[in-house]
Amino acid sequence: MYNGCICNCWVMREAYMIDLEIFRQMGSISRRATKEMNQAASQYQLENNLFLYLIRIVEHEGLTQSDLADLIQVDKTTLSRALTKLDRRGYIDKVADAKNKNYKQLYPTQKARDNYQVLAALEQKYIKDRLSALSASELKQLKQLLAKILHT
Questions:
Q1: What is the pLDDT of residues 76-130, one digit of tens each?
Q2: Can you tell me the distance from the alpha carbon of 91 to that of 88, in angstroms, rounded to the nearest whole number?
Q3: I need a labelling partner for 152 at 20 to 30 A (CA). Which of 22, 71, 123, 142 fits?
Q4: How far apart are CA 55 and CA 44, in angstroms?
């Protein structure tokens, strides 16, 4: 019985280490992408993930701050600070919702629309470069696995 426990504990530890490594790799991928995209977007004064918020606002005009927080999985305080920067830099307009004045709908300015094509192209190139080593079936499988993780 004692030897069975040692063996079982080792197997459980090994499985934990594999899980840990997977999540650490996912974190490394995310941080690397964020770092490289922030560097590319900094020439537009869109550092510290501001480009990410701006792209989503252009793609989803009129969404609320709460909707944007849910969309990109960020806390509302961090998002509020980022939106203030985007507003001050002339990238977005915050418009009070007609039904509830506490909700602000977010709209891109012309400056945002003008920079969107460049930012979206930077994002698409980054994604293409990173995923080019994967086959179509591997990409499909990766998408399914990540969705499964995200929605659990």
A1: 999 999 999 999 999 999 998 788 777 889 999 999 999 999 999 999 999 999 9
A2: 8
A3: 123
A4: 13
Tokens 């040692």 belong to residue:
6
Pairing relationship of beta strands 104-108 and 92-96 according to DSSP bridges: antiparallel
Residue carrying the six token digits 């063996």: 7
Give the count of alpha carbons within 13 A of 133, CB side only. 2
Q: How many residues does this entry show for the chain?
A: 152
Give the other-Cβ count within 10 Å of 55's Cβ.
Answer: 22
Per the DSSP assignment, residues forming a β-bridge with 105 are 64, 95
Q: How far apart are CA 30 and CA 48, in angstroms?
A: 13
